[in-house]
Amino acid sequence: MTMRHVAVAGLSAILLAASATVAAAEYPDRPITIVVPYTPGGTVDLLARALGPRLTAAFKQEIVVDNRPGAGGSAGAEYVAKAAPDGYTLLLSTNSPLTSNLTVYKSLSYDPIRDFDPIIVAGENALLLVANPGLPAKSVAELIALAKQKPGGLAAGTSGNGTTAHLSLAEFNKLAGVEITHVPYRGGVPSLTAAISGEVQITFSDSVPALPLVKAARLRALASTGPRRTGIMPDVPTLDESGLRGFDIAAWVGLVAPKGTPKEVVAKLNSEINKIPKDRAFAEQITAIGIDPLGDSPAEFADYLRKEIPRWQAIVKDAGVKVE
Fold it and tell me: pTM for the complete prediction?
């Protein structure tokens, strides 16, 4: 290669970088689509629709929420992985499509590290361990003692095979050294109904549908599954606090972009979204739907994701979950 060719190549690289910087400075100049890989009305969907108006106010562009459910969230993740890396198609999802689904599903057409640029962990959604009031266990310690007296004699309802609730039960059994029988239902509400009727003794549930049942004394809250107490039920201890050290099965909610999205665009999105939880009205709004607001940098999220993938894969393998 001649010096002239080197100079031309160098100039091209500079112009390309300059062009990307200009594009990022003008971003966004058209509507942004946030893909939610779940059905409308769920926790992540509600979070996306709470973020939408605030991002519209910040960017002066419409935020479109596009629900693309399927394969435990992986269908929507696959769609975004193949989208143009320009910052106009983003994925807002729980951790499952980016971590546990790699083991739950036999084959996925995307890789969370290779195909996405992390933007921010926006929030955390822990589950509640609730029990039928007739169960003679008013604490986690008493539940464990009862389960050890009756190996396989207690049953736990969950929202289905491979769900966060199922993985919570598997981790509970492992750390507590007990054998509580898994009974999967077609969703969280049926599992709550089963716990109320006594068909099962306990269930792991999203906090929002469980809260009114706990307040009405139709169920008893024993603990939450995350690393910290939830904003919606701050008086309920975590499982870690209750003796199961290291228990952490909270579903975090993260925003990612297709790999190759300009760093300036990623930084701009991160900066604006990090500001939003400081709005008290927003924080109260999403706490009410069971999400505790978080925030971090793209680099911190990337590092966190690399650590979370093997952790969730181990949890799935321990649970013996597999979907063909």
Answer: 0.84
